[in-house]
Amino acid sequence: MTKNIMIVGVGGQGSLLASKLLGRLLVDEGYDVKVSEVHGMSQRGGSVVTYVRFGDKVYSPVIEDGEADFIVSFEKIEAARYVRNLKKDGRIIVNTQQIDPMPVIIGSAVYPSDIITEMKAKGINVDDIDALALANEAGSSKACNIVLMGRLAKYFDMPKEKWIAAIEKCVKPQFIEINKKAFELGYNS
Question: Where are the domains of the chain?
Fold first, then answer.
């Protein structure tokens, strides 16, 4: 059976490293893995989506509406943008951080104030986490992505040590300790 994970965020938040980490973990566990990155306007703070599909045999990297077992969202509006992709019994992990999109910055739109509350009211399985605060606690605001991977790991039947091994393989040596701490904080929060 194929499992589907979407990683969504804004350019520069580290979603590509998160998908690389997840892909490495799953390949090391013997799964057939397909990863597809859709960059959008990532260089300018635009939406970035990565699909990670794994199982015994995976034929396509794309996740259609209603197929995602998990969505890991690095930002609240991105969670709302992609919630249609979530399975009925799926789960969305949302960083509570707010990053204003360009229409909000220039004043032509207002950032919605209660995105997470609205999703929960619709019966969506939402796991919201202040990943930025935990990343700062780990030593770098840039470690939000690994905090979120720690939170995702709680829902997998894989030893934490396997995730840590994947971090050690995917992260530059000088950042391994901060990222391991960030993972632990996300996992234990």
Answer: 3-188
Question: What value, to the nearest 5°, has the Cα angle with vertex 94 and ends 92 and 100?
Answer: 130
Say what the pTM is. Answer: 0.93
pLDDT tens digits for range 42-81: 455 677 899 999 999 999 989 999 999 999 999 999 999 9
- Name the strands in the sheet holding 125-129, side by side, starting at the edge strand that comes first in the sequence: 32-38, 47-55, 3-10, 68-73, 86-95, 125-129
User: How remote is the C-alpha of 41 from its chain's centroid?
Assistant: 18
> Rounded to an integer, what is the distance from CA 78 to the centroid of its chain?
10
Taking the domain 3-188, which CATH number applies? 3.40.920.10
State the Cα–Cα distance between residues 31 and 83, nearest whole angstrom.
26
SS3 of residue 3 by DSSP:
strand
